[in-house]
Amino acid sequence: MSELTLRPAGDITPMPGIDMTTRLASVTFPNPVFTASGCAAAGQELDQFFDVAELGGIVTKSIMMAPRSGRATPRMAETPSGMLNSIGLQGPGIDAFLDKDLSWLSHRGARAVVSIAGGTVDDYAKLTAKLRGRPGLAMIEVNISCPNVEDRGQVFACDPHASAAVIQAVKRAAPTGVPVFAKLSPDVTDIVSIAQACVGAGADGLSLINTLLGMVIDTDTLRPALAGVTGGLSGPAIRPVAVRCVWQVRQALPDVPILGMGGIRTGLDALEFVLAGANAVSVGTTVFGDPRAPVRVLDELARALADRGFERFEDAIGLAHKPPVIHVPEGPDPVGDEPTPNEHRPVSFEGEA
Fold it and tell me: Is 288 within 8 Å of 305 (Cβ atoms)?
């Protein structure tokens, strides 16, 4: 297996001969690498490092109906192989977002995946309705990891009925032909049941996963490190959890498109998600240290696929779910003419999948 080698800065493009296109519901994207919501606003900050239109899509920071100042500081803290954030969905509100950010993405030729968040089902419906007729809108990602103010603060994504209610409202209000993806939280006992509820309510696909709820205590101040006490854990530390969630949902819902995310730093990390069943991936936290990470990951992923003999990206999706192929030499058995008991059988593995 050859070692992956990056091209010089400014020359990061998918390798010739690799078809990197992918399909998410009704939309075909030129490649499977997106940004992750919340890590690069609407892409303008990253555009100074690379052309944001090079990516499959730009997933915007979750937008709400009204402007929000977010939570008090400090609201970020480093952890081993990750970080906690407690930003509080700071943003300009939907109207300013549409006038400034979405119009900018459309002008740049980027495919915008607009992430929406709300405190009530009606909030989500109103946000979606405002997206009708907007150029550049490729997809809607519904961030349901928000407290439901009508249900004692219960997070929508932790309850299948609440999740389904949001998705149903968004689908009714969504522009025709624009896929709706539900972004799910890993902070549940059974993520498959939430995924099934969302798909049953009309979701065209699923984004897996959002951050995990975590906490850090400062041992000098003897108090929580974040002003909001808890925050969302992201980065490489959560990647095994994210891959597990993608795997489980792909097994249960083999035909539902998945946008996978959680701790992706390299093309091989992205390939892991793809083999588990992701149709595309989002790159997030790593951009804080490497703003060019999304296009670098795209290049590395293309090279990793080529190294493994793939000609099309889509041929790798979910491949880890398929039994390995055993090539049995033709001709008689060296000892006798009868095949040995283990020949012509797929390899089986003990233990939980």
Answer: no
The mean of the pLDDT values for the chain is: 90
Angstrom distances, CA of residue 177 to CA of 27, 72, 174: 8, 39, 8
Strand intervals (E) in 144-193:
147-148, 154-155, 180-183
pTM for the whole thing?
A: 0.88
Closest C-alpha among 236, 299, 310 to residue 273: 236
Residue 249 confidence (pLDDT) above 50: yes
CA distances from 214 to 159, 228, 232, 285 (A): 20, 11, 6, 16
pLDDT at 148: 72
CA distance 323 to 118: 42
Q: Please give the average per-residue pLDDT across 63-77, as a whole number.
A: 93
Can you give the residue ranges of every domain in the chain? 22-321
Q: Is 309 exposed, middle or buried (0-12, 13-18, 19+ CB in 10 A)?
A: exposed
Neighbours of 228 (CB within 10 A): 18
Percent helix, strand and coil across the chain, each to the nearest 5:
30, 20, 50
Average pLDDT of 22-36? 98
For residues 279 and 31, give the distance between their C-alpha atoms in angstroms, rounded to a whole number.
10
Three-state SS for 332?
A: coil
Q: Does domain 22-321 have CATH number 3.20.20.210?
A: no
CA-based Rg of the chain, rounded to a whole angstrom?
A: 21
The set of catalytic residues is 146
User: Per-residue pLDDT tens for 300-312?
Assistant: 999 999 999 999 9
Q: Answer whether 131's CB lies under 8 Å from 175's CB.
A: yes
CA distances from 252 to 247, 302, 340, 350 (A): 9, 28, 35, 20
CB burial string 247-286: b at 16+ within 10 A, e below: bbbbeebeebbbbbbbbbbbbebbbbbbbbbbbbbbbbbb
Query: DSSP class of residue 39?
Result: S
